[in-house]
Amino acid sequence: MARAGLTVERIVAAAADLADAAGFDNVTLSALARHFGVKDASLYSHIRNLPDLRTRVALLAGGELIEHIAAAVAGRAGKDALAAFAGAYREYALRHPGRYAATQIRVDQALVAGSPALRRTAEITYGVLRAYGLDEPDLTDAVRLLRSTFHGYCALEAAGGFGAPRDVQASWDKAVDALHVALSHWPREEKQGEAESGR
């Protein structure tokens, strides 16, 4: 592939494709240079270093993931929205394993704040959960529950970690049902004013 037309966008897109094909940990500047038929040094006019590249892949993948989720939850509410959110999350994680792995790395909060896609992630996630009447700090606790459940299930499924004969989709559906019940009967954090009035 010719060097002409090399851009940040093309490099990051190629890195995301490489992540899906070979694993996110195998994304290197040398591998990308070979892909584009250039020397490693040619990439440094576009990408600062490997952490910069991986962060850019994480932001790209995070944007793709939330767009996929947003399309799934549009027009839905309550349990339907939760199930659509969960299904879109799992579908993306299994279809794009390298990109999905990139979304799990820690990204500088200043970059998160400057990313419209990642801000939208918070808006959509909190929007689904507010339908259950949750406010902070319960919202954050619930987000962590969903993320850990979805990520754990997808990681085990991708690794072939479910060996029982029970259908994996049936177990996933049951897990989403259980999350709906948990969110509907959330053990709410008692606010300071309420605690004092009850003394």
Q: Can you put this structure into words, describing what you see?
A:
There is one protein chain. The chain is mainly alpha-helical and about 200 residues long. The chain has a domain at about 55-190: Tetracycline Repressor, domain 2, CATH 1.10.357. The chain has helices at about 10-20, 30-35, 40-45, 50-75, 80-95, 95-100, 110-115, 115-130, 140-160, 170-185, 190-195. Helix 5 crosses helix 10. It is globular, with a radius of gyration of 20 Å. The protein starts with 7 loop residues before the first helix and ends with a helix. The mean pLDDT is about 90.
Keywords:
globular, 199 residues, Tetracycline Repressor, domain 2, mainly alpha
Percent range of helical residues? 55-70%
Radius of gyration: 20 Å
User: What is the percentage of strand-forming residues?
Assistant: under 5%
Order of helices and strands: HHHHHHHHHHH
Number of DSSP helical runs = 11
| Count of extended strands | 0
Shape: globular
